[in-house]
Amino acid sequence: MKIVCAVFKYDYADPRRGHSFEHMHFWGTISKMYGRDAVHFPVDENIMRMGKRAMNKALLETVRREKPDLLFCNLFTNEINPGTIKKITRESGIITVNWFSDDQWRFDNFSRYWAPLFDWVVTTDPNAVEKYKKIGYDGAIKSTWAANTGLYRPVPSKKSYGVTFVGSSHGSRLKMVNFLKENGITVECWGQGWPNGRATQDEMIEIFGNSKINLNFTEVSTSARDLKTMMKTVAKVFLRRGISNM
User: For the whole model, what pTM was predicted?
Assistant: First the structure.
């Protein structure tokens, strides 16, 4: 099988933040599984290099040239034009798939409008498959998050941590960390908004592997206001590079 993987290369499209989850896990795993039959199309990097309009044209040209069996996407917002996806899905004979990361809170204002453009979509929300069926879309697949086993593995270290958390301090996370501290449990944190700052990918794996307890706050903590802030962050990255046709 030949796959074109069209996802962000950098976290929120910002090279200063390091590689994105989708680049490390989706592209990293696909490239390992399919080798030369895996074609890399870094959406954000191409937008920064040539602009959104030209990136969409380049994606169509890549699909025509490579003739893959499948196009894999992980949309953030509207970086790929609806017309581009529709053209590939309906005219090329190529199977198109999008992984929707946040159907728990983005189904009603995002996923439901974009799903019909693809042959198949993947959701991690156990309630979303039925929601897709209710809007007349039968191509939803329930899955779950995993990890690139080439990156995430036991890492021996001389360091030893107690309770740790890696992730930004948005939503109720700061409140929960403070609650634990007030009750005698100190949590060492890394990420946007914490005193330790961001951990690199290698540092994060080392922290995970050498913590007695590593926390994962599973509640949905991103509001519509937070989403707008994230979108503005991405837009600022592109604007800094003179790209305005978003």
Answer: 0.80
